[in-house]
Amino acid sequence: MVVHEERPIKPLFAKGPSLGVHLLVLVVLSITLMVVDARFTLLKPLRSQMGLVLMPSYLVTDLPQRLWQGVASQFGSRTELAAENEKLKTEALLLQGRLQKLAALTEQNVRLRELLNSSALVNEKVEVAELIGVDPNPFTHRILINKGERDGVVLGQPVLDARGLMGQVVELMPYTSRVLLLTDTTHSIPVQVNRNGLRAIASGTGNPERLELRHVADTADIKEGDLLVSSGLGQRFPAGYPVATVKEVIHDSGQPFAIVRAIPTAALNRSRYLLLVFTDSRSPEQRASDAAIAQEQADRQGLPASAVGAAPAASPAAPAAVTPAAAASTPAAPAPAAPATPATSAHPPATAAPAAPAATPGAPVISRERH
């Protein structure tokens, strides 16, 4: 008689932790990572590498928009293109006329700075970047651009569009960067009223269409329509770039400060192509020393200081604007040497001696500018 031993039947699906346990573990892990990322800097290298890995996904998600723009541009009507062409020609003509005036003002600024022995930047070097992502958090105004550390971008670098300043770089990755916009609640920028030079601090409100000026005296000379430009006092943003236009000024007799609201000049919600500004990283003392050396070399060569000292400080595009005016200002260069005796032409080395004392007062002048 054969006895068959009965074996327990194995279940078809092995039982494990329930879905609720998995969900709880993932929630705890997510909260832990968010706390560590917000409080510590341990995950910054990981985030940088993840940005490098996710770069293809940004390009893929942006591909439909690029294709749609390409198709739309190909099938645009001839009438619209002709009208747009005429409009662009008119704008180009107007801008060329303004550029001629700006070139004269730029050269006048160069000559005045030469008198102060200051070689501060007149034109900054810029590089075009493209917006490829927007932070989905509605309480954080940040964007992602397609230029990163490999392209020479640095933390704190100013970013602007065709209308004005947009913000600054706050996070670097190898091929991309994150930009904090002016309207973010954590961002402030020193500005001044272009009409009278009144200084103030413009802070973000969380609204992409509004900035606020903090601690402006109720009796301050500021009114609706005033243009606010960057003052450069924070040593982060270059001076003279448009920031916002004053929309309303509310005076309250019971408050020591007025309520000033402004609209950013930059199209923060619409601009796709941006400019990264590379400013002069030299200290004021180093710029003064370079200006003194350039002045001494100019005296030895018989050239104006702008022809010698402007090239190292300005961008690669600056010589096109500076060189013609430098040649035009050559006849005015001998003016500082007019009090010299006729023996100056007979003894050329004697012109170098007055140059050293002339450069010495430069430091006090620059220190006054820093205040």
UniProtKB/TrEMBL annotation:
Residue ranges of the TM segments: 20-40
Location of region: Disordered: 287-310, 326-371
Gene: mreC
Pfam families cross-referenced by the UniProt entry: MreC
Keyword Ubl conjugation belongs to the record: no
The protein, known as: Cell shape-determining protein MreC
Taxonomic superkingdom: Bacteria
Compositional bias annotation for Low complexity: 340-364
Keyword Membrane included in the entry's annotation: yes
Biological process terms in GO annotation: regulation of cell shape
Species classification: Bacteria, Pseudomonadati, Pseudomonadota, Gammaproteobacteria, Pseudomonadales
InterPro entries in the cross-refs: Cell/Rod_1, Cell/Rod_MreC_2, MreC, MreC_beta-barrel_core
